[in-house]
Write a structure and sequence with these properties.
Blueprint (H helix, E strand, L loop, with lengths): L2 E5 L4 H10 L7 E5 L8 E6 L3 H11 L3 E6 L28 E3 L3 H10 L8 E9 L6 H8 L10 E2 L12 H14 L6 E4 L2 E2 L5 E9 L5 H10 L3 E4 L5 H4 L5 E8 L6 E8 L3 H18 L2
Helix pairs in contact: 1-8, 3-5
This protein binds NADP nicotinamide-adenine-dinucleotide phosphate.
Amino acid sequence: MHTVGIIGSNGMVGQKMQAELTKIKRPFDLKLFGRHDEIPALDIAILCTDNPVSRKLAPELKNRVKFIVDMSSEFRMTAGVPLVIPEINPHAITKQTPLIASPNCTTTGLVMSLAPLKPFYHFKEIFFCSYQAISGGGKKLLDDFNTPGSYYEKNCVPLIGSLLDNGHTSEELKGLYESRKILEIPDLKVYCHTVRVGVENCHSLGITVKLDKKADLEQIKNLWNQFPNLTYREKVITPKEASGKETTFICRLRQDVEEENVIHYFVTFDNLLKGAAMNGRQIVDLLLERFI
Ligand SMILES: NC(=O)c1ccc[n+]([C@@H]2O[C@H](COP(=O)([O-])OP(=O)(O)OC[C@H]3O[C@@H](n4cnc5c(N)ncnc54)[C@H](OP(=O)(O)O)[C@@H]3O)[C@@H](O)[C@H]2O)c1
């Protein structure tokens, strides 16, 4: 029997991962590991851990684990490590890629909306502002949020991750560099602000895209609706309705009032599911089906 282990099984992503893995039809033995556990030989290890833990564990596990799926950002931009959203770039996984990274949650919402348009439009410029949920910051942030007087209560905080010397945050640069890697568009222009809002679950993005030609709104809606796990809704949809759902939702598509090649729209999705555990589960399913 194949073995799949979740490392960091008590965390926000680790807990969701346990529920997600029950959706896989292929048989395997699931093993759970916390902070102090020894990790034996496995077919697949899913690291639901922060960067320093993934940085330490991945090389240690290399010789006794066939494939590592890392949910942290530690190896996402490392050459030779595929950064995978199964709906978009499953081809990036091969027998020669024993370490696979799952992308940043906010980036996932952006590229899910762009991937279906890519064969039909060239993206000249992309701008987004994110409205990111508390659950995206892990269980410590959620505990803080649930403590009376939390800074995040009824607030929005325009700083996620670390503030870099160039004035951007690490979260903002993920939106730029990870999007380029996943979409395989090395010169993609992405401008963004990332903001934490006092919403418990589900990230949202307000997105503006400048295309190379006039936007055909009906075609774009159809492309979104034909894409797996993506839905365009004429009615407004918010984090409240998206929470717990596998679908990435888009609403409020409109053409710019002055430029016919510019579109604006709103995306919302469950950051713990498509932004993390569901994406990880899809990668594991693909590995079990094709490589193990
Ligand atoms: N939350 C999201 O929406 C989201 C989305 C995409 C990606 N991610 C990424 O996924 C990773 C996990 O995020 P999270 O939100 O689940 O964080 P979290 O709630 O803080 O969970 C982290 C888990 O790692 C465990 N851990 C710490 N040191 C360990 C060790 N040496 N060995 C094994 N386990 C260890 C912790 O154990 P204890 O329970 O003992 O503290 C905790 O259960 C992070 O890299 C995050 O950036 C998160």
